[in-house]
Amino acid sequence: MSRVGINELFDESRFPSGWSAMPLLFYFPLGLALATVRFFIGFQAYLAASLLPQLTLIRSFVLRSMSLVLGIVVQQESPGNRDKSVKVIVANYLTPFDHLAMHLVEGTVTPNSWGWPSSLGEAIGVMDLGVKQGSESLIQNAASHLMKPTAAPLFAQPEGGSTNGKKGLLKFGTWPFSLGSACTSVQPVALSVWRPGITDLAPSPLASRPWMDLFWFLFVPFTLFTVRYLPCVQKKEGETTEEFSDRVQELVAANLNLMPTKYTAADKAEHEKRHLLELARASLTPSPSPVVASQNINRNRIRAPMSLASSSEIQRMARQVKEVLPHVPMDAITRDLVRTRSVDVTIANILEGQVAFQPEPATPAAPPVATKLGTKFSPTCSTPSTPSTSPLSSSLDTSAPSFPKTANERMLSFQQRKDRLIENARRKYIEKNGLKIAGFNC
Description:
Blueprint: H1 22-51, H2 57-70, E1 72-77, E2 88-91, H3 98-106, E3 110-111, H4 118-123, E4 126-127, H5 135-146, E5 154-156, E6 168-169, E7 185-194, H6 210-219, E8 223-229, E9 233-234, H7 241-256, E10 259-260, H8 265-284, H9 290-324, H10 330-340, H11 343-351, E11 369-370, E12 376-377, H12 391-396, H13 407-433
Parallel strand pairs: 1-8, 2-5, 2-7, 3-4, 6-10
Antiparallel strand pairs: 7-8, 7-9, 11-12
Helix pairs in contact: 1-2, 1-6, 9-10, 9-11, 10-11
């Protein structure tokens, strides 16, 4: 049944886009003044309607007159289908003020789901039927109201939420069709709303609030409500309440040339939450201004020489690692340095086997390693000056014999120990991988 996407049921923006919004800009000052004047007139209409008795001819005349001043115009179509004996009128949901249009022509009352004050609710045809207490309380109070001999007709909008009236209807709720003997038949009504092209504003877009809709009702020249009466629908024998509501939904949708859907008011609430989240994300990530865009261009221009400097730094560090571990390919060293940005960490990763590579062939002879002390570590098997100490055991000892007293001596001792650590790393790597290098393993 629901071949219409849920996003097609609602207007996300109240205002037209493109060139069609130009007339609205010229009309805006006049609309603002009109809304201000109508606000004070509407307040006086409320006072007059609240003081007059319920459903009197005088009160009806006052409400109709004030509604014309406020820009709410109601026209009726197919009045011959209206059965005055049927006390439940069911219609689609377009704006938060649909009930006011029906109250003007039928004197109906509707459940107070907006929290209007009781005095104001009576003036605009809203009655407290226990909506906040749940559906059971609503059904019980509505049935009790209809059992009264002089009860005003009950106006219900079973969709539970407004749509744009362009693609489809929300699924009808079952409460207006669950009133027992008080509701064996209902009077379907097809509502439509029209505004002049110069102010073609969406009456109730997604995530709108009733007070915002009220302002734009006062702003536009007028809003035309068309009330089209459809033939009364009676509940069939053995028909469930849901089947009854679906049948009425299909009738109203067919008359409006809309698609009856399975989307509910709860689905609309979830869609509205997602819409508000998208708006919040868009506001947190605004498009860059021309100044910010130029700054980004300048940053991109600066990044190029910085990346070249970073590449040369990686190459310099790679050569240092290559001096310690000559049999590791340069590409493997560079790959790990890009990740670690540290000579020591890369050497440790290679020695611990965390870097995969294919060892390069051994060179015939390794050049001597010079230190800042002027001494040379010759990679030969000749006996050092101390016969009782082997080259390996002497080089493995990296501890300082004593703490130097001056800064120069401490720096000198540090360089010596650093050179011995590098030599030890080379020896450990050669022994671990079983390499045959002239001068290290004879």
